[in-house]
Design brief:
The chain has one domain. By secondary structure, the protein is mainly alpha-helical. The chain is rod-shaped.
């Protein structure tokens, strides 16, 4: 009776092992699994596209900021050249000239002569 019980238990364990193996490898290729795999593949492709789009966006932003910086520099240079060409002297020289004239006026004023 012990041999029969051990044989039955052994066959039962082998049956469970075969059932698990059959379920895992043969029956797991169900339509639901295939649909989930297709959805996962689609999501991976969409993620790659989004990643490339974000990278392109930031590269273009970098180029536009660089261009904007150059345009501001060109505008500043243009205004500086206009200032230099439309005034007789640069502003620093003009300030110095005004200060000298103010000193000259104070030195020659009648109050100083008394």
């Amino acid at each position: 009776m012990t041999l029969q019980l051990l044989t039955t238990l052994f066959v039962f364990i082998i049956g469970i092992g075969l059932g698990i193996t059959l379920q895992r490898y043969v029956l797991s290729s169900s339509p639901r699994t295939a649909a989930l795999e297709n959805e996962l593949t689609g999501l991976k492709e969409e993620h790659s596209r989004m990643k490339m789009d974000v990278e392109h966006h930031f590269n273009q932003t970098s180029v536009l900021i660089h261009n904007l910086t150059n345009d501001y520099k060109a505008l500043y240079d243009h205004l500086q050249k206009g200032s230099d060409s439309f005034t007789e002297k640069p502003l620093a020289d003009l300030k110095q000239m005004l200060e000298q004239e103010g000193t000259y006026v104070r030195e020659t004023s009648p109050e100083k002569e008394s």
